């Protein structure tokens, strides 16, 4: 006899009658009910002991979790369960300390290879973040003059509605700074903007050339998130991390590929 998990009503006619009752009332079957018979249990562990001893697993549920006794119809569902519930990678036989750690592992070149290529020099990268940082930093040997400002102008052309780029009225580019002898204060080379001290001219110049004192040019497309970013690579890294659930990692890679390799506007 099958029971309702909310009102304890019993249905001698079978599970179909019980399911019709649940559909009509919004009730649910017991949380830990056997897939095959009408027995149910107070814990998942007790349920799995029963189903293993009686071989009551549903036909086709042949994929067993590497961490717990749960079974699944397909390998994909089993793998998703291991990753999301146990932070475990079966392929590498590794368990991680947090959801973010295993997400970084699953999105690393160990599992994804290096399919993201620079549109200019074709150097391969594992993620869109790496490829975009390569361009914004002026590291591409084919596009050495490419800068953060030029990347922003390019993105604004592809993103006129401001999905990820901020609409900065009258923006013509960021000011540049050059270290002079006046930067030495007798103790160190000091930044006039933040008063931070540096041991060499090169270190101070690198600080001034970095986005540290620049304004935010981008924002997360998830309006409930509200985070802003100074470089395109940072907003892409934020999206790839899936920390605010704006989109899936694969979606980010696909859209950034479209952004740099076609005339289409940016869409998320």
TrEMBL record:
Assigned keywords, A-Z: Metal-binding, Repeat, Zinc, Zinc-finger
Entries under Gene3D superfamilies matching the protein: Classic Zinc Finger
Superkingdom as given in the UniProt entry: Eukaryota
Molecular-function GO term, any one: zinc ion binding
Pfam families linked: zf-met
Name under which the protein is recorded: C2H2-type domain-containing protein
Segments forming domain C2H2-type: 32-61, 87-116, 189-213
InterPro entries: Znf_C2H2_sf, Znf_C2H2_type
The keyword Transmembrane is assigned to this record: no
PANTHER family according to UniProt: C2H2-TYPE DOMAIN-CONTAINING PROTEIN, KRAB AND ZINC FINGER DOMAIN-CONTAINING
């Amino acid at each position: 006899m099958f029971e309702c998990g909310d009102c304890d009503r019993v249905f001698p006619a079978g599970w179909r009658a019980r399911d019709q009752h649940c559909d009509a009332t919004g009730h649910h079957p017991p949380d830990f009910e056997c897939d095959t018979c009408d027995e149910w249990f107070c814990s998942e562990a007790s349920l799995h002991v029963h189903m293993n001893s009686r071989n009551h697993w549903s036909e086709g549920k042949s994929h067993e979790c590497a961490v717990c006794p749960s079974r699944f119809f397909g390998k994909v569902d089993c793998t998703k369960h291991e990753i999301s519930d146990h932070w475990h990678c079966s392929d590498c036989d590794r368990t991680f300390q947090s959801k973010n750690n295993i997400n970084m592992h699953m999105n690393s070149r160990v599992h994804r290879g290096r399919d993201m290529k620079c549109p200019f020099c074709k150097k391969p990268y594992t993620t869109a973040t790496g490829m975009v940082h390569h361009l914004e930093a002026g590291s591409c040997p084919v596009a050495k003059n490419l800068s953060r400002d030029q990347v922003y102008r390019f993105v604004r052309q592809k993103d006129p509605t401001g999905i990820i780029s901020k609409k900065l009225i009258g923006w013509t580019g960021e000011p540049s700074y050059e270290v002079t002898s006046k930067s030495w204060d007798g103790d160190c080379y000091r930044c006039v903007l933040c008063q931070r001290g540096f041991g060499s001219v090169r270190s101070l110049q690198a600080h001034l050339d970095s986005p540290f004192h620049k304004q935010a040019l981008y924002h997360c497309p998830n309006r409930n998130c509200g985070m802003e970013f100074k470089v395109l690579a940072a907003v892409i890294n934020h999206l790839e991390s899936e920390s605010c659930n704006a989109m899936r990692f694969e979606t980010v890679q696909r859209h950034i590929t479209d952004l740099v390799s076609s005339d289409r506007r940016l869409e998320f």
